[in-house]
Amino acid sequence: MGILDWLYNGVAGALASRLIGSAGSSIAKTRDYVRGKQSKQLKVRENQFDDNIVLNFVGLIADRIVSQTVGRGFELDFEGKTETESEKWIKSLLDANHQETLFHRGAKFAVEAGTGFMFLQPDGMTGNDSESYPRLTLLEPAFVTINTEPEDFEQITGYTIQYKLIRNGKEVARKREITKVAAIQGADEPDKISWLISDFEMTGGSNVWTPVGQVDWPHYFPPVIHWQNLPSLDKAEGEPDITDDLLATQDRVNFVASNASKIIRFYAHPQRFSRLLGMDSKVKLAPDEMPNFTDSNGGLFQLEPMGDMAGILSYLRLLRQAMFDRARVIDIDSMQDKVGSLTNFGLKVLYQDNINLINTHRELLGDAIEELVQRLLILGGKEVVPCKVVWPDWMPVNETEKIAAVVQDINAGLLSKQTAAGMRGYDWENEQKRLADEKAGEGDIGTTILNAFNQGQ
Asked: Which residues on adjacent β-strands are paired with residue 178?
């Protein structure tokens, strides 16, 4: 059976319906919440107006973390000054695998589940140069279990991928076991470690896994690479950004917001009542009408609105701020009154926890990308060239202050204009040529004007 056969790619239908047993149920709940499918906090009777509101802050938090981590992409810095064939090949491979979408999706999986998984297939992707490249496939974390040594969770012994689906109207369970095996002849490392890929199916009401295929993976590394979203102390899987306590706070936010909405709905218009007007009395309340009461004890009155709306909204903002603080993500709403006066130093202080969080994400994901590149070069039969992942700055900056610092360094003789041009994103050689052309053009214009003046024109 080929490596490309049978592997499930993507999620068709609801995630929870594809799980086997209770595995991944927490991930399924987290994904629902991130996408806005959250528990209603107010009970709604039949034919009653639904006052429930979802303020999806967990989704906003997840999106911000993903964008801050990989939103501006990354560069691969290979050793040596000359671009090698291996470097060109890796760049073409990543482009063929749509790296922007691939790593955004991978980061989103990890933020929700705590761990990202990628499956390496020897071929399956065709680049713009018509060359065939290895295919990189993201695995659904809810379907994957990492197998480790009993007393050392850092020693990976295999991966188990299992899920269920409906085929021809019948439920079918599938399982793939990727297991480290003894040395085999031809492995590409001196210790001759290799892996065995075994596929199984279970149909109908059977509780027995039936083997349906097996293939050797003759490399020292498995066809799966995983990375921790955030470090974990006692397991191979990482920790998610969207935690259970964050989901509980999200529920409380929705509860408060829904109740506030209900209060506003009930008291959006004045609630009037009459006294001693009689059952047959008709009171005209149109803008051009004036009620008239003959009974000295009668009258028309209005209910006072109930509840401290200012206090409720203040509490709602407190909960929002607590959510973003717990997630270690800056909440723009909390800095609205500071934006115009913030210096770069002030921004770094304000974003300090957010910066540390993104640095951790990038360290762990970057390490996985570097390992991925080495494995891909081996699969492609290319020279293995060490590389480092270089991440761009994602922080907002005060441009005026940044330019002033560059000019100050140039004037102090600490920085060359060519280096400063590179820091500002300009091409030094092109800009020098353009400046020279502009200067020559200005000279020609000046000469033309002077000649015209001398000629009395």
From this structure: 159, 197
- Distance between CA atoms of 360 and 110, rounded to whole angstroms? 13
- Among candidates 452, 399, 446, which has minimal Cα distance to 423? 399
Give the helix/strand (H/E) hosting 139.
strand 132-139
Cα 90 from chain centre: 24
Q: Where are the domains of the chain?
A: 1-273+283-397, 399-454
pLDDT digits (tens, 9 = 90+) for 336-363: 656 556 676 677 777 889 999 999 999 9
Rounded to 5 degrees, what are φ and ψ at 37?
-90, 85
Instruction: Tell me the two tokens of residue 180.
Output: 């480290």
Read off the tokens for 51: 């006052």
Q: Which of 235, 224, 223 is nearest to 116 (CA)?
A: 224
Place of tokens 């293939």: 215
115 class by beta-carbon count within 10 Å (0-12 exposed, 13-18 middle, 19+ buried): buried
Can you read off the two tokens belonging to residue 158?
A: 């295999």
Separation of first and last alpha carbons in the chain: 89
Q: What's the mean pLDDT in 413-421?
A: 83
Q: What pLDDT does residue 11 have?
A: 44
Mean pLDDT value of segment 133-152: 92
Give the residues across from 387 on adjacent strands: 78
Q: Please, which pLDDT band fits residue 419 given cuts at 50, 70 and 90?
A: confident
Residue at 167: amino acid letter: R
Q: Which amino acid is at 407?
A: V
CA dihedral 69, 65, 26, 324 (to 10 degrees): 150
Number of H helices, E strands in the chain: 11, 12
Summarised one tens digit per residue, pLDDT across range 21-74 is 666 788 999 999 999 999 999 999 888 899 999 999 999 999 999 999 999 999
